[in-house]
Amino acid sequence: MADVVIVGGGHAGAQCAIALRQQGFEGSIALIGRESELPYERPPLSKEYFAREKSFERLYIRPAQFWQDKDIALHLGCEVVAVDPQAKLLTLRDGAQMAYGRLVWATGGDPRGLSCPGANLAGVHAVRTREDCDRLMGEIDGGVNNIAVIGGGYVGLEAAAVLTKMGCHVTLLEAAPRVLARVAGPELSAFYEAEHRTHGVDLRTGVTVTALEGEGRVSGVSLGDGSLVAADAVIVGIGIVPAITPLIAAGAAGTQAVEIDAHCRSSLPDIYAIGDCASFACAYAGGQAMRVESVQNANDRAVCVAKAICGDAQPYRAFPWFWSNQYDLKLQTASISRGYDDTVLREDRAARSFSVIYLKQGRVIALDCVNRTKDYVQGRKLVEAGAAVDPARLADADVPLKALIA
Prior knowledge:
Layout: E1 2-7, H1 11-22, E2 29-33, H2 64-69, E3 72-76, E4 80-84, E5 89-92, E6 97-105, E7 109-111, E8 124-125, H3 130-141, E9 146-150, H4 154-165, E10 169-174, H5 186-198, E11 202-205, E12 209-215, E13 217-223, E14 228-230, E15 233-236, E16 240-242, H6 245-249, E17 258-259, E18 271-273, E19 278-282, E20 288-290, H7 295-309, E21 321-326, E22 329-334, E23 342-346, E24 354-360, E25 363-370, H8 373-385, H9 391-395
Parallel strand pairs: 1-2, 1-6, 2-3, 6-18, 8-15, 9-10, 9-15, 10-11, 17-19
Antiparallel strand pairs: 4-5, 5-6, 7-16, 12-13, 13-14, 19-20, 21-22, 22-25, 23-24, 24-25
């Protein structure tokens, strides 16, 4: 029995345990993690760790001694397979059971796999865990050089950038007409497509994967147009599937994610959900229900839950932001551009330092800033204010964005 049991050893789960102690919570805390590793940062996996610029030990969210000092019991290498919300009891895969006072579900998700023939061949990888990355890095060390990346989202593009830098030949395959189609406008997509091609990536959009070829191990990717892309290895980066099955089976509302309210409460008593596995009505996306996959969202919601458990419940209102590093380009995104009806380009893309500002009914709702940190810092205040600004003034790079806040 633990007063608070947190299921999930990623950013959201680890930060919730930390925040509980920071808020003065004196009860018992247990954190259950499916991996055998201490909680670690995941964004560097497809960046600095993959490029071998950071050791794995530098990715730990806290060192081992911290968890002991804070009396947070880590149950690593364990998986919850059933939840009994009436008895407040969890069942683990090994048959053990654990009672809880309050439960925080922070399981994130599993990499979405391909459903085509050959998807289970050796040499097909995800980039979600340390084990995923170590396996691929071992193959590259063993001579694998010709790699196909399936998926033109952040993970796929970041992996392509790192692999290219390592001297690999990379083919990136995206089913949509452009990369980053789910999260950014056409201007940003076109820029990143050109950058990757300039760096040697064979980037193809609007292509469908029909099969992975090979005998035992992958040797190529068959496309819908009948062509074959030769590959010694394949990285699949087509999103995640939220790991929610036990909680949904227990009766929590939700289908593609656990539905939560403004206080991160699920529909079940004394059970919260946070991070990539939870969906909520996002004020910065016009109130649409959605999941937000970001470290910021995971950490801020963890703090929200910790405060609620400690008797200081406050509705979640944090501002969503994201980042991505590819080559020498730092992309910073403020808020969510969903539903925009106009864009303003600030500075020339050829300068490799520009911002795309998204407007809806004349008001600033989001920004993508490439190597423009000042725009990002100042522009997010325009979003928070819901500012209506003359597009000509937004486009004038000589006018600081902070000067446009009424």
